[in-house]
Amino acid sequence: MVRTIFIQRMVLFFKCNLECNPPMQSLKILIIEDELITANAIQETLENAGHQITACVRNLREALVAVKGQPPDLALVDITLEGSADNGITIAKQLLTLHPMPIIYLTAHSESPMVLSAKETRPAAYLLKPFRHKELAIQIELAYYNHQAHQEDTIDPHNAGILDRKSTRLN
What we know:
Strand order of the largest sheet: 2-1-3-4-5
Distance between the termini: 57 Å
Radius of gyration: 18 Å
Strand content: 5-15%
Largest sheet: 5 strands, parallel
Structural class: alpha/beta
Shape: globular
């Protein structure tokens, strides 16, 4: 009985944490996923976290149309896309030439060659399926935050100077 109550409270806590604590910022997210059930689960998770899904697409052509029509803040990409001539890594490379943004891979593949190939796109994260809903929401927020911080450091010479002075003190 005590264990049941504990489990019920934990479920309520995690559900409330995901739904009651809005993200730092509502993001526009493109989902590239060929499995409809998985795409729907991802979309529901991200919408519950306060984000907007710009599109759920299955191939390069659909992804290009989606990015041109409504540029996302971030793309969540499956690597193996059944029925697509291109894999998710190839699609991510194409999208990045059109619209720079953080890429998060969400895939079932953990083999070294696949990870090495994905590294070429400098992904913000590489998550394995099956995914955990809370972890996905957190990784998306961190990826976007880090992308924005990097953009500010690159653009603002004052921030770069501060970083240089800090690194000098540490050495």
